[in-house]
Amino acid sequence: MNRQNIENMLVFFLRYLTQISSLHLLIKLVFLCFVTTPVGLEGDADLQFLLIGGELVKIRSSSWKKNRFYKLQEDCRTLWHESKKTFRRNQTFSIDDIESVRKGRQSEGLKKHTDPSVEEQCFSIIFKGRKKNLDLMAVNAEEANRWVSSLEKVKTTISNLSHQQKSEHWIINCMRKADKNEDNKMTLKELKHFLRQINVEVDDTYAEEIFKKCDKSNSGSLEGAEIKHFYDLLTHREEIDVIYNKYAQTQGQMSLRDLLNFLLNEQREQATAEDASKLIEKYEVDETAKQKKHMTKDGFLMYLHHEEGSILNPAHIPVYQDMSQPLNHYYISSSHNTYLMEDQLKGPSSTEAYIKALTKSCRCVELDCWDGANGEPVIYHGYTITSKVLFRDVIKAIKDYAFKTSDYPVILSLENHCSVEQQKLMAHYLISILGDALVTKPFGDTMPTNFPSPEELKGKILIKGKRLNKLDAIFNNNNTIEEGTVSEEDEAADCENGQKAKPKKSKIKLAKQLSDIVIYCKSVHFSGFEHAKDSHGFYEMSSFKESKAFNLAETSATAYIHHNMDKLSRIYPAGSRTNSSNYNPVPMWNVGCQIVALNFQTPSKEMHLNQGRFLTNGTCGYILKPEFQRSLSSQFDPNTLTQGPWMKRKTFYIMVISGQQLPKINKDKHKSIVDPLVRVEIYGVPADNASKETHHIENNGFNPMWNENFQFDIHVPELAMLRFVVEDYDTTSPNDLIGQYCLPLTSVQNGYRHVPLLTKRGDVICSAGLFVHLMLLDAQ
């Protein structure tokens, strides 16, 4: 097979993959990829460019700049580059691992180690998680643009594939890898290797049995139609057969009426004949069946693998909530010590941490500001050896990335330890860099009595910090004070580092320029709920350390909820969490706290819950609180449930049926196969917290079947979160996480649903998932 034919085949493969819509068509594609060499196909220019590859300069420092050859491999998902290290001559990384491709000198490394004159030649590959950025420089601007646009095209194409298409692509890629001698055939040894790759362990006898069943020619290897037969056996899903056959009452297929019966009886949807017709039109792949208004099993599986068949209600994916209520009526996705990439004592500070948080729709970020060298304020974790980053660089990064994934307002929480002179420079940077996006005065011509809404604040940035006077001074011509003394930031006063280092001052001088741009989020000390009600305006807010907040939530929950009906509250982790661990955010949401700040850099169960809480409503970073947390007449207490509008008792039934293509945990061990189990967890008010798990399946991550039923009693569904955890069972050590998924219980669809799985860091595992049956019913 010559190079041009391979390239043409891969171009065809990538294009065809975006259109493929059934197992029947996929089998043709498998046959094509393994058996034939299509010729005469016109190639995609950008894909051809990546497949051919080229030389780029890899930049690590001002003195380390090396030429390296990069190219896309034949699977169209893996980028290869040479390495001069003797023990690692070739290196690869997956397109799936790329978070973004940034044109120009947009990374800290390129800004520091290259001259502005090469701006147009530079670009960076930003990876998910903590993997270091890859900073590169092309020979000219045109070449750099070509790399950026081509990588973005392939990345977008792959990410836009449906779950089923990604699954099919993954299987084909495993088949390619198993074909060691690249002869487009599969021997028994290669078949065993393939089965291990897809995470299923079978004994030699069973492997030989499958092989013989498919090897019709008795040639000792599978090819052509025999590979097709093997694929049929491999991807057959018995559980789908059972469901489909139950409702396919018309000539072995689902008629429009059959499909409508399924939607009404199993999926519990308010569906009409028109809805069923639209699904057939959208997902049926057989034209003859489509003309009859029938749905084949292939079309049925396509439907189940798309958003209509997902556990997450498609109506909750875009912004669907009322965004015109006051700002304090919303939970706000919030980050603590946003500048840190790792721990609280010696880890690096970086603008990259702000970019990652903002592009995950975090809407409140923290800036710990200290006097820096040469009169330039810096951001770092005071009294520690964490590295420092310039305040102006952080503000530039916020300006560039604040509204990339959400248009709704961003709050900059300033922890200010700077001298008056450097505070003036901070104010200058905020005003000059953020421009019109910065809120510098209240909306309207009179003193407001409530917050503006997220809708009114679209594209705006608010400053949270100390202010020298009341907000109404702006309207009373009493805003002439030049500078003054205020109590130091509450969080600093709590000595959150957990260190016994230099004692912190209780008072600091505050520059008027910085004070004047604190409008709707003035930081004040908390002295009790009654004091706050009598003495503080709606715009005056307090920060609560974790232990204080949890104590108030336990002993004065209703008072805390009413406090949050009028004001904002910010919660931050204990200073003893020097490893950047997190607290459980759910009890804080239960009492209506809006800014529940977590260490975004730390993958954890708590961050999974946060991701689940803000998964819906366009992932815009704002979720409207339940009405009983906004109504002044409410007497809701999550700890001692009484009758009220919050009590909507439900019974939640769930059957964990099967899993699909669960990833290997230990990829370095060739024969390592997972033993998966599934745990179903409910988080909400204390009475609703519960956890139940399946048995484990030995040596099968490809298509494990559990068929286990669970039941949960739910009292306050509007506060409940549902979390799936898939683990690799181990008798001698703690189980390893395979994948997880979390979402609000009120966003769950009833019926037979597929559940996507995410990594510990919250990234989608392309081909993996669970298949479940769910029913949320009114309690009897």
Automatic annotation (TrEMBL):
Binding positions (Ca(2+) 3): N337, E366, D368, E415
Topological type in the membrane: Peripheral membrane protein
GO molecular function terms attached to this record: calcium ion binding; phosphatidylinositol-4,5-bisphosphate phospholipase C activity
Sequence intervals crossing the membrane: 12-31
Positions with a binding annotation for substrate: 58-85, 464, 466, 543, 570
Keywords per UniProt: Calcium, Cytoplasm, Glycoprotein, Hydrolase, Lipid degradation, Lipid metabolism, Membrane, Metal-binding, Phosphoprotein, Repeat, Transducer, Transmembrane, Transmembrane helix
Binding site for Ca(2+) 5: D728, Y729, D730
Pfam families registered for this protein in UniProt: C2, EF-hand_like, PH, PI-PLC-X, PI-PLC-Y
Domain EF-hand stretches: 166-201, 202-237
The enzyme's E.C. designation: 3.1.4.11
Listed cofactors: Ca(2+)
Superkingdom field: Eukaryota
Compartments in which it is found: Cleavage furrow; Cytoplasm; Membrane
Any single biological process term in GO: intracellular signal transduction
Entry-linked SUPFAM superfamilies: C2 domain (Calcium/lipid-binding domain, CaLB), EF-hand, PH domain-like, PLC-like phosphodiesterases
Domain PI-PLC Y-box: 514-630
GO cellular component, one term: cleavage furrow
EC supergroup of this enzyme: hydrolase
Residues the record marks as active site: H336, H381
The C2 domain, residue ranges: 630-759
Positions of Ca(2+) 4 binding: I673, D675, N699
Residue ranges constituting the PH domain according to the UniProt record: 49-156
Name the UniProt record assigns to this protein: Phosphoinositide phospholipase C
Species of the source: Amphiprion ocellaris
Lineage: Eukaryota, Metazoa, Chordata, Craniata, Vertebrata
